[in-house]
Each structure stands twice: as C-alpha cells, then as structure tokens.
Design a protein that fits this description.
3 helices; five-stranded mixed beta sheet; alpha+beta; 101 residues; globular; Trna Endonuclease, Chain: A, domain 1
C-alpha cells in the first residue's frame, strides 16, 4: 500500500462514528494522518478532488475529534488531513498531503 511504502503505520481503516467516517488513520513518526480516499470513474463532475466538499471535510474533522476523544494516546500528535485520489479511467493515484486544514 502507498502509505506503508511511505513509512506510515495504519492505525485504523473505515473508522465510523455518528459524526462521520475516516477512511484511513495513519501515523508517520510524530504525525497523525487522516486520509480521505476518493475514486472517480470519470472527470464529468470535477474528478475525485471536487467530491471532497466543505460538508464532507466538516464530517471528517468531527470524526477526527471523536477518534481523539476515544484514543487519548493520539491527542498529543499534530494532525494532517490528506487525500488519496484515484481515477478508474487510467488507474492513476495522487496523494495530496495537507489537502485541507
């Protein structure tokens, strides 16, 4: 997997709570990385990046707060929100670090 190759430890996949869902939660050193994974079959509606709306970002932030409340050992780590964008049309993968604040 792309994240493991970059030296990340996967802490959770598909973390769900009533606030939302986190596709991947990873740790690289002293950094907690929350990853939104998006797949798009076409660019007709702006591609994978365009599908991460303000409402979606807010749900991710709320779910991250929930995760940190449940796992206090992670609270001291700085958090970065990344996106992994995949295109079904050509199989390309793009990893955007710091995709949103």
């Amino acid at each position: 997997m792309l994240l493991r190759q970059a030296g990340c430890e996967i802490l959770a996949r598909n973390y769900r709570c009533r606030m939302g869902e986190l596709d991947l939660v990873a740790r690289r050193g002293r950094l907690l990385i929350i990853v939104e994974v998006r797949l798009r079959s076409s660019l007709r509606f702006g591609g994978a990046a365009a599908s991460i709306t303000a409402a979606k970002r807010e749900r991710i932030v709320r779910a991250t707060r929930h995760l940190l409340a449940r796992r206090p050992g992670l609270r001291h780590l700085p958090v970065r929100f990344d996106a992994i964008l995949m295109a079904a049309t050509d199989g390309s993968i793009e990893w955007i670090e710091g995709a949103f604040p």
